[in-house]
C-alpha cells in the first residue's frame, strides 16, 4: 500500500447567587417561552406516559439556568452513553449494602455539586431555529438534589443469573454484560428518549447476592464524551472515599466553546461549506438499514501487543531511517484490526474501505480552559484505501472451488497502516478541529452529522469505526466499602453495544502502560467474527473470546466461548501474523 493510496483526512468529548457561578451560564427570564406549554411540547402528553413523566415535566418548568452546549454537543446522537464498573463484593447483607450505598450516594452528591448541570434535564429547544437541544438546570440547592428517578439501588437475587452461570462464571469467561437486562441494571427508563425531556445523568448501584457490585452510569451523549465521563469518575471517587465533601469540592470552571472561538468559527464557515471532510458524507442518499449485531470481547495479552509494537517499530525504522517516525501500541492494534477485519469480510479489490477513529481534541487547543472542558470535545481522523491494498488477491481451494484462500499477512502491511494512522493523527491541530466545528455550525439539523458519518464510513459494510476508552475508568480508586482489592473496578464495560462495525478498546489498568491485558469490544456479525478469529488470522493473537449477546434480542440464551491458548510470536520476520 503506497502512501498516496490513503487520502489525507486533513482535506476533507445555594442561593440566588448560584446563577452567577459562571459568566457563561444563561438565566432564562420568567416569561421565556420555554417555561410554558412550549417547553413540554414533544414530551408525549404526560398523562399517557406515566407518573414519572408527569413528575419530570413539572420539574423542568422550575429550571431557570441553561448550560451551553457546543456545535459538537448538538451534533452527536441523542442517546445515553453507558458505562459499567464491576467489583467483587463478597459479603452481601443489609449492613454492607447500606454502607456501600451511603458512600456511593455521598460521591454522587459531591460530583453533582461540582458539575451542577448534570442535575438538569435535556429536551428540545423549541424556540431555536435549528433542531437543537437545551440543557436546563436549577438555580437553587433544592433543584440540584439527587433525585429518586436518577439514583437507584437494587439487590439482585442469586437466582437472576442462574441461567447465565452466576457471577463467578461470568467473571471467569470475561464478564459479558449485554446478557444482563438493561431495565434491571439501569436507572433510566426505555421511554426516556427524545423529544421528551429526560435526565442528563442517571446511576444505579446493583448488588448481586452471589458476590458483586455493578455500578451503571448513564450520561446523555449530548453532554458528555469519554473524557468527560473520566472527569466525573475522578470527582465521584474522591467523594466516595471522603477526600472531597459537599463543602470542600471546588467549583468547575465552565467554558462556552462556541463563544470562546466564535470569531474563528465565523471566519471558517464559508470555507467549510465547500470543503470536503472525509469523515462525513452529506449527500442525500439512503443508507442500507442499520443492522444490530452482537458484541464480542476479545483479549490480547500485554506481552503480545508489546512484541507486535516492537517488530512494527523496527520495520518502520529500517524502511525510513532518515525520518523520526514512531507508532503507539494503539496505532498497532488499530492497524491489525483494520487489516484483519477487511480480510474477514473478504472485501473485493475495488471496494473502498475507510478507517475512522475518534480523537480527544482538548490537547490540541492553546487555551488551557479547553483542556478540562466537560462536554464533547473530540474530532475524527479518517483514512481510506482500496481493499486490494490490504486484502491480497485470494487463491482458490482445488477441492472446494468456492473456498477462497488468502496469503498470510506480512509485517510490512501492518506496519505501513500503523504508520499512516499515526501520521494522520499528528496532523490534528486547533485549526483542524475548528474547521469541523464551523461545518457543524452550518447544519440546520446538527444530528445529520452522525448520519453523514455513517454514510461516509459504512461501518456495516466495508468500514471500521474505532474508539479508545483505555484511559477512562480502570484506574479510578473508587474505594467503595465492601469491595475487595485496591479499590478499582475488576471489570469496566461498555454494555449493550450493538452498532455493526464499531470497535472499542475497553478501559485498561495502567492505560497504555503496564502488563494488564488489552480488551477489545467488537460489534460484528457472527460470520465475520468466525473468519476473524481463525487460528491463521487475528485469532492467533487472541487469548480469550466471549460472545456477549443480548438474549432479549434473540429469544435465546447467551453463550460464551473462552479461549486460553498460549501465543507464540517466534517466526520469520517476513510473516509475523
From TrEMBL:
Keywords: Transferase. One of its GO terms (molecular function) is transferase activity. This is Transferase family-domain-containing protein. Residues 17-26 have a biased composition (Basic and acidic residues). Residues 1-26, 31-50, 546-566 are annotated as: Disordered. The keyword 4Fe-4S does not apply. Residues 33-50 have a biased composition (Polar residues). It comes from Truncatella angustata. It comes from the Eukaryota. It holds the Pfam family Transferase.
